[in-house]
Amino acid sequence: MPFVTVRHFTEDDIPTRTALLRESRFQANLTDFAVVSADDALTANQRRTIEREHAVKRMFTLCGSGGGTVGFAWITSIDWPGQTCELSFGVLPECRGRYGAAAVAAAHAHIRAELNMRVVVNQVLEHNTMLVPAELLSEQRRVRCAYDSYTVGEWRTACYWTESEQDVARQREQAAQRRRAIADRIRTASASPLPS
């Protein structure tokens, strides 16, 4: 999996994020407000978030191993005393296949480690299978909300679920068990004598 780091979003990131907000797949899979907003309004909105809205919203830049931008993440619906938030992200089109899953994992890890968030609310529009296959989305969701969002001329159904610290720890342990099982099979196979 590629290495992704997270840093604070700055004014220099605004043009790249604005282009992402206007990209057609992003609009269909999250929101299309950028289509009806002028460049000045989008810039002002992002600048306002940087300068004045840290109590209710935070934005981050996701960077690849060379330091280049691969996407963005942002948290909203922040409940600081309850240590919960909703996490959203967008990966640049040219980086989606290579960095998508790593970017999401880095964003989750960052907000837990740096902002002390204990529960993260996930929302994915049901038709959006860019990172989560439809079957897995159906299994993960705890709430299915028809008519949740109106994007690109259609009402969209959203799936919601939460991930707690315990969920993350369980997922890490399951991944470690899978790696150990694979390593054991490789060791067993390499220790066996070759057929003559």
Automatic annotation (TrEMBL):
Q: Which UniProt keywords apply?
A: Transferase
Reading the lineage from the top rank, the first entry is: Bacteria
InterPro entries, alphabetically?
Acyl_CoA_acyltransferase, GNAT_dom
Entry's Gene Ontology molecular function annotations:
acyltransferase activity, transferring groups other than amino-acyl groups
Gene3D superfamilies, A to Z: 3.40.630.30
> Where's the N-acetyltransferase domain?
5-129
Protein name stated in the entry: Acetyltransferase (GNAT) domain-containing protein
Organism expressing this protein natively:
Actinacidiphila alni
